Amino acid sequence: MEKEVSEDLHGSFHGRHPLSANESTLLSSLAEGGRNIFTVDDVVSTLDTTYGNAKVIVNRLVKKAWLMRLASGKYLILPLEAGVRSLWSEHGFVIASSLVDPYYIGYGSALNYHGLTEFVSPAVYVVTSKRVKSRTILSTRFRFITVTESKMFGSEEAVISGRRVKVSDVEKTVADCLDHPEYSGGLDEIAKSIFFEHKIMDFKKVIGYAEKMGNRTIIKRLGYLLELFGYEEYRPFFEGIMLSEGYSKLDPGLPRKGRINEKWKLLANSEVNPERWIG
After folding, report:
1. Per-residue b/e over 219-228, b at no fewer than 16 CB within 10 Å?
2. Which of 24, 56, 82 is the last residue of a domain?
3. Residues 242, 232: Cα–Cα separation, whole Å
4. Which domain range does residue 40 map to?
5. How does pLDDT run across 192-205, given as a tens digit for each residue?
6. Which is nearest to 216 in space by CA: 242, 190, 240?
7. pTM summary value
8. Of 57, 80, 119, 190, which has the most beta carbons under 10 Å away?
9. C-beta separation of 206 from 222 below 8 A
10. 131 located within any domain
11. What digits encode the pLDDT tens for the residues 152-195?
12. CA-CA distance, 142 to 95, in Å (whole number)?
């Protein structure tokens, strides 16, 4: 079972403590440089001090409630607007960008970011090739999804709160969600996104991504859904594509029972009904 690490520090202190001149200089310099999230190495260069002394300084600032530790060697400045009890909430995508590398924001989080769904993910989904434990920071849950390095592509940069953050592009988001619907609110949610927003999706690109990911089940699910929705204009995109042998489940989270679709080599074990979404 996955163990979640809690780093929500609200209520762990009774108020802020005064800053020394050196600490004030550090925080002011970092803030002026737009580095509200920084590393110990940034402290070394800013104060021209040793790594050991920099560690002492940041640890003292954490205890004084001016900083929050996000990950090993990475810290968030809690601004004056946070008040004496340092109640503050940074954008989850910004925090995620500092927790692991390589990474991109994906699945349900990216689906919502691109306006492809109104579903609000219960966690920020962070895709990475490294193994990282889920954790909660500033009341936001971060769920790390480990994938092979060959799947770490298809992201674009978004500017959030003045910082550059990597988010899967529209087509990689669709491919990823069809690969693992359980991280996007379920099969119904990604199906609904395709039904309503298909005109802004490049399905040739989605198919190309699926092939690059080495997962033709994505193509099976996509083709099945587009045909179910009556979107015949996309039929040529699937011509000449060899589907994998065996019958994949339409919804990987449901039992292996239902109707067999020979054309798409798919076990339709979930009822997708667009009439539920209209009106």
Report:
1. bbbbbbbbbb
2. 82
3. 19
4. 11-82
5. 999 999 999 999 99
6. 242
7. 0.77
8. 190
9. yes
10. yes
11. 999 999 988 778 999 999 999 999 999 999 999 999 999 999 99
12. 9
